[in-house]
Amino acid sequence: MIPRFASAALYDLARPLLFGLDAEWVHEVTLQGLQRAYDIGATRLCRASLGGDPVRVMGLEFPNPVGLAAGLDKDGAHIDALGCLGFGFIEAGTVTPRAQAGNPKPRIFRLPRAQALINRMGFNNHGITQFIANVQRTRFAGVLGLNIGKNATTPIAAALDDYRAGLNAVYPYAGYVTINISSPNTEDLRNLQGERELEQLLAGLQIERERLTQQHGRRVPLAVKIAPDLRQEQIVRIADSLVAHGIDAVIATNTTVARDAVVGLPHATEPGGLSGRPLRRRSTQVVQELSDHLQGALPIIAVGGILEGGDAVEKIRAGASLVQLYTGLIYRGPALVQECRQALLGLHTGPRR
Fold first, then answer.
1. Can you tell me the distance from the alpha carbon of 19 to that of 27, in angstroms, rounded to the nearest whole number?
2. Fewest C-beta in 10 Å: which of 87, 211, 228, 308?
3. Distance CA 243, CA 78 (A)
4. Which of 71, 69, 84 lies closest to 36, judged by CA?
5. Which segments within 240-330 are labelled E, that is strand?
6. Is 225:189 a contact under the CB 8 Å cutoff?
């Protein structure tokens, strides 16, 4: 077995070279390389040496509380390969009913001095049919979350149609389904967090979920992913709406459009969502505000700015039950997964159901 410190050292050596290349190209090549390693059995050498640390959330048994956030594997094409990094759960997507190219390139920018990324991908994916074909092949032993969104060409007034179509398609294959209404990179998408829009969306999905429960003989949990750029009163209103409509978890948070923490850095003014270290404090604040208000009525999945084990601990202590990684993997590599798992061993203080 390759020691964790060795794999971390290898990534540290490779990172300067990788960071000298186009960010989206590196993203794609890295996933392809990981997939090839998995296909020939090489990833078995790097499997986690930690034992299990299960936690029950949303009625599901998670092998450990550290997951992969949506956005890294949009088409669900590399679930098994990514699972070998030691995640207890993986969230694939965001997928839309119809294939779409997303926003024009370039659309991913690194801010190394801030340990941050800005992306404006725009839900680029190959569509729900290809997504499901990929998901059907997975043998991942952890919990699989499937993240759905609306197509860019679908008006907000018709958004429920896209989410209903997505829910129908992924329902038989999902451990849980995430409703993404908080990406800043699809025009007007965040309007779905508005009071009237959210009520209509959740009411429609609640009805559809009940129908699918009867059809498939099982109730798949639903989570809603929210933005960090919300006022406290908006967070409270959204939390109350989620509980009222029987949603099973809230994911806090998506990327931010704020730039206060990166003023003056190269690429800081690029449009898109900012993630990584500058998001850590705000995302944790949203988790804390949700936890204080919900008082255990709804579990929280925390994501945003986790670049070391202590950041994961901070999220759990703020009230989260699970954590997700993304940008931290870009800066720290696979060793971050094991570091977070080690830091969280036995530390499950967040409310769960």
1. 11
2. 211
3. 33
4. 84
5. 249-252, 273-276, 300-303, 322-325
6. no
Total length of the chain: 353
Instruction: Tell me the C-alpha distance between 185 and 122, whole Å.
Output: 5
Going through the chain in order, the beta strands assigned E by DSSP cover: 55-57, 60-62, 66-68, 89-95, 108-111, 116-119, 143-148, 176-180, 222-226, 249-252, 273-276, 300-303, 322-325
**Closest by alpha carbon to 320, among 89, 66, 147?**
66
Instruction: Quote the pTM value.
Output: 0.93
Reported in sequence order, the residue ranges of 44-115 that DSSP labels E, i.e. its strands, are: 55-57, 60-62, 66-68, 89-95, 108-111
Cite the active site residues: 183
Please report the pLDDT score of residue 3 as a whole number. Answer: 45
Among the listed residues 130, 76, 78, 138, the one whose alpha carbon sits nearest the alpha carbon of residue 100: 130
Sorted by where each starts, the structural domains of the chain and their CATH numbers stand as 4-344 (3.20.20.70)
Q: Cα angle vertex 29, ends 23, 33, to 5°?
A: 140
Tens-digit pLDDT profile for residues 173-232: 999 999 999 999 999 999 999 999 999 999 999 999 999 999 999 999 999 999 999 999
Structure tokens at 176: 């849980």
